[in-house]
Amino acid sequence: MNTIFTRINKMDESKHEIHSQVDAITAGTASVVNLTAGDPADTDYTAVGCAVTTISSNLTEMSRGVKLLAALMEDEGGNGRQLLHAAKNLAGAVSELLQTAQPSSTKPRQVLLQAAGNVGQTSGELLQQIGECDADPRFQDMLMQLAKAVASAAAALVLKAKNVAERTDDQMQQGQVIAAATQCAHSTSQLVACTKVVAPTISSPVCQEQLLEAGKQVAKSVEGCVESSEAATTDPELLKAVGVAATAVTQALNDLLQHIKKHAAGGPPTGRYDQATDTILNVTENIFSSMGDAGEMVRQARILAQATSDLVGAIKADAEQESDLENSRKLLSAAKLLADATARMVEAAKVELSQITCMFL
Predict the structure, then answer these.
(1) Are the C-beta atoms of 32 and 190 separated by less than 8 Å?
(2) Which of 242, 267, 292 is the last residue of a domain?
(3) DSSP H or E run through 18
(4) For a designed S-S bond to 274, which of 187, 219, 238, 270 qualifies (C-beta 3.0 to 4.6 A apart)?
(5) Cβ partners under 8 Å of residue 346, min gap 6
(6) What is the CATH number of the domain that holds 168?
(7) What is the pLDDT of residues 196-232, one digit of tens each?
(8) How many domains does the chain have?
(9) pLDDT 10s digits, 308-326
(10) CA-to-CA distance for 127 and 202, rounded, in angstroms?
(11) pTM
(12) Are 119 and 23 in contact (CB under 8 A)?
C-alpha cells in the first residue's frame, strides 16, 4: 500500500514540475517574440540569450521528468508513449523556434511567429496528456478570438492611415505614416502569436506579463499611427477616420486585457511579488539545509533560478511603467542586485555540488 501511495505522490510531483517547466518554456518563447520585435539593430540580444537559456534548460529538465512520468504511467496501466510523443513534438517546436531566432537567420518575421505559435500548441498538447491544463478551453478560445479582434481592428486602422499617406504630398511624412502603419500591423501579428504561445499556460503570472507586454507594443504602435497621421494632414475627415479606427483598436485591446485580468483574479490573492519572494526565501533556506544532498541541491537551485527570474521580470515590468525616472532607476537597480545575488548563490551551490561529486569518484 505504501508503495502505491509513494508512486502516486511521485507522479503528482512529476506533473507539477513538468507544468512549471512548460510555463517557463512558453514564457521564454513569448519573451523571444517580444524582444525581437522592431529593428534588429535595436534588439537586446543579451536579453534574448537569457530567454533562450531559460527555454533550453527547462526543456532539458522537462524531458527527464517526462521520461520518469511516462514510466510511472506505464506501471499504472496508462499510455506513457503518448506523453513521450507529445514531449517530442514540443522539443521539435522549440528547436525550430531557436533556429529562426538566431541573429544570423534570414527567415521572415512571420516564420518566427509561426514557430512560436507551434511551441504554444505543442505545450498545450503536452499539458493535456498529464491532465494539467491551465484554463477552460472556452476561456482559451475566447482569448484567441479577442486577440484576433485586435488584429482585425488594427487592419482597419492601417487602411485609414494609408489613405492619409496617399493624400500627403510630403514624401517624408508619407513614409512616416506608412512606417507607422506597418509597425501597427506587425505589433498586432506579434500579439496574436504571443496569445497562441501563452494561452495553454495563462495562469502563470510570467506568461500574463509577456502577453501584457505585447499589448503595450500594440498600444504604442496605435499612438504612432495617430501621431504620424496628424503630422501629415489637417483634413478633418481623414483624421476623424483614423481616430475612430484607433479607438476601435484600443477598445479591442482593453477587452483582451480585461479577459486576462478576469482569469488572473481567479487565482490566490497574493501581492505582485509575494509568491516569488516567499519561494526565494524558502528555497534559500532549503539549499543550506540540503548541503551534502547533490540531487536536492540541484532541484532547489533550479527552483530558485526560476523564482528569481519571475521576480526580476515583474520588477522590470513595474520599472517600465514607472513615470518617475528615479523610482524606475531604483527598481532596475534592485532587479540587477537580485539577479546578481542569485547567480552567485547558484554558482556557490554548483561548487558545493562538484565537491560532493568528487567525494564519490
Answers:
(1) no
(2) 267
(3) helix 2-35
(4) 270
(5) 301, 304, 305
(6) 1.20.120.230
(7) 999 998 888 888 889 999 999 999 999 999 999 999 9
(8) 3
(9) 777 777 777 777 766 677 7
(10) 12
(11) 0.69
(12) no
